[in-house]
Amino acid sequence: APNYEFYKNADVRPPFTYATLIRQAIMDSKDMQLTLNEIYSWFTRTFAYFRRNAATWKNAVRHNLSLHKCFVRVENVKGAVWTVDEMEYQKRRSQKITGSPTLVKNLPSSLGY
Amino acid sequence: LMPGICSIPVTSLPSLEWPLPSRTDQYELRIEVQPKPHHRAHYETEGSRGAVKAQTGGHPVVQLHGYRGKEPLGLQIFIGTADERILKPHAFYQVHRITGKTVTTTSYEKIIHSTKVLEIPLEPKNNMKAIIDCAGILKLRNADIELRKGETDIGRKNTRVRLVFRVHIPQPGGQHMSLQVASHPIECSQRSAHELPMVEKQDMDSCSVLGGQQMILTGQNFSADSKVIFTEKTHDGQQIWELEATVDKDKSQPSMLFIEVPPYRDPSICHPAKVNFYVINGKRKRSQPQHFTYTPLPAPSIKTEPV
DNA sequence: TAATATGAAACAAATTTTCCT
DNA sequence: TTAGGAAAATTTGTTTCATAT
Predict the structure, then answer these.
(1) Does B284 reach chain A within 8 Å, measured CB to CB?
(2) What is the ipTM of this complex?
(3) Domain RHD spans what residues (chain B) (predicted)?
(4) Which residues of chain A does B284 touch, with a Cβ-Cβ cutoff of 8 Å?
């Protein structure tokens, strides 16, 4: 798992896409599923940067959850939780890597997407 | 004042999230009259919505059996969770002490780790029986609670509670024997109380893997589009089975569902299988999971000769 | 250029909180 | 005070448009 320690207290935008971060939040959870609210909490807990401008990044999180097919909403007793369709997630990423040789060279391996 | 109450230091007692038995060989703490399954809680911005009542119109009653002492004891009351997890104080609700001339019980309240606890006397002269007419329910704002450091529960759709009763009985050695009992679940949201299906009673707890038997569910808010879904989860929470039971819509009423238990996914099991089922109205309005057990067929017949 | 990412925003539905009689 | 109802407010999800990489 990536080490986000630096960003916990440094008010610097983490160099990862929303999709990468959302997936990470869900992967970090015990049951591989989180409510929207719990995803928000993970963001604020893990990144100083997301402790301000909440309206903006929360909107973006919801936007990404809806937009990407890899995030699947599952009904539950307690409302709904979000899960990751890992197959779908990796499909998108591998398309990007195999489909663009120039990007492969420049993509730092530690960065998502 | 109230002798015997409030005299025990909090630090020597088990914490509120600690599981306790409701009975021992000698004692039993029992809810003689259960509260109603619905009680709309009030917010801090509202006036009180009164004490929790019983189905009968009276109030819940709790009694301690087996106590031979002469001294009155204190009965503690707090609001607990009502989900599948083990009971703990409900972060989004608090007991609210009702006072007034309609209330017969004197009560005393204190806060233990951000949970309000009511204490009322249990007196030998009343047979150690207490009428709970002084306990209302206060709703705290989700956002306020969720930002508390260390709180991981979510308030949204988390609106069911149980009344939890505790008593600490002094023992010869200076120790205490603590007992606890929790009420049936109480739905505290106006909307959920009106719309969510709730199963209060099921006519049977188990049947053979073949299913096919009729089961009668008693409860609230059942409707024409109510479905009953049987599910099974593995130990780590992965759902591995789901099947809809057929509902007899002709017989069913708003407070009663007649269903046919569906067959279990594997008729050849050797040990009983514990599954869940729930009632769901429309897309989102679903009841808490209920428990059901499928039992294996009598004996796997090895004989092949005809009878 | 085509594909992706990010932001802002309009809308709808579900759920919670406040207000009124 | 206590009950009921429901308006007002907030959350959660979906979509669309514009801009930057």
Answers:
(1) yes
(2) 0.83
(3) 11-193
(4) 75, 79
